[in-house]
Amino acid sequence: MRGHRMKSFLSFMFTFLSLGTVMTTLIWYMLDSNCEEPFQPPPQKKHAPKLSEIFKPCKEIIDKVHQRYNQTWKKNEKNYLKFRTNLRVACNGFDNAIVTQNNTPIGSNIVYSGEKRTLQVNKDLFDLFLKENPFSNKQWDTCSVVGNGGILFDSGCGKMIDSADFVIRCNLPPLENGYEKDVGSKTSLATANPSIIFQKYGALTGRRLPFVESLHKYGNSLLLLPAFSFGRNTAMCQRAAYTIEDFESPIRPVFSNAQYLHSLDQFWCSEGLKERRLSTGFIMVSMALELCENVHLYGFWPFSNHPYDLYTLTNHYYDDVPVKTFFHAMPAEFEHLLQLHTEGVLRLHLGDCKSDKK
């Protein structure tokens, strides 16, 4: 009988400890995921939840953001020039952000930005490179860098975004079917993640017309392809460039420069941002800070509750597909963007443009 009770007691303790381990792991996961919530359908109405329904660390983070953000913004020319100079000296995006025939001649070796692997440039690859750098000796007055965050949904920011001289969009986002009022339609440069080409267009190994048709909304903008991030992306990005050429699409494919991405990683590491890989949006902000006198950011809010009304946001303004946090630490990047905003280096837009909130 005593042995039976001892076995029961040990069994109970094992179950209790196991449950405790699971709960501890769950709590740490919730804290570490920086206010990310499980999948929820897009909100039909903007009703603010009760404060008790919001994960407490999330509310604390939003309150801290308010303390730093809710001040009248004014550009600090001294801070802007100092930061842009440091960025240009370290990375020189004007000359190096995009691969050209001038900075990457035949026979040169490209070191991939995402892996320890090199590729020697042959004539076929060289012929796809731009002859002249589209950014050399150019400086735009205003630039809009548009992230895809759910905060843009029903924001009414479209006209403000399109009013910029140069508009950068990330990962081929949708601009039609009513989204124009929130995100605009003007595009000067768009990026294309290879995973999108692979998933939506079968890596362009079959029918290619749907891919070309999907690019019509971006007009004659630059299409930035990360051909040299990983070796597996090179052939697919080449196919994308050939497809655009074969169908005589007005969009202009260009390749991001792995050397520039290397230097950008090192620069932001020196600034205290230590993560596995910079996000596309963050790379575009960095590029814009060299190319533009006044940089405005939209859709860069990484948390799952709206910063003002606290209602639940979808991950993107067009869907709720979760971000791959294994590669990108979005809240860490946001911290640096918020710091640049408070220093008057760039302007971070949160809230609704139509109501002229900060």
TrEMBL record:
Its main location: Golgi. One of its GO terms (biological process) is oligosaccharide metabolic process. Keywords: Disulfide bond, Glycoprotein, Glycosyltransferase, Golgi apparatus, Membrane, Signal-anchor, Transferase, Transmembrane, Transmembrane helix. GO terms for molecular function: alpha-N-acetylneuraminate alpha-2,8-sialyltransferase activity. The chain crosses the membrane at residues 12-31. It is found in: Golgi apparatus membrane. Disulfide bonds join 143-292. InterPro entries: Glyco_trans_29, Glycosyltr_29_Sialyltrsf, GT29-like_sf, Sialyl_trans. GO terms for cellular component: Golgi membrane. It is a single-pass type II membrane protein. The keyword Membrane applies. Belongs to the glycosyltransferase 29 family. This is ST8 alpha-N-acetyl-neuraminide alpha-2,8-sialyltransferase 6. It comes from Astatotilapia calliptera (Eastern happy).
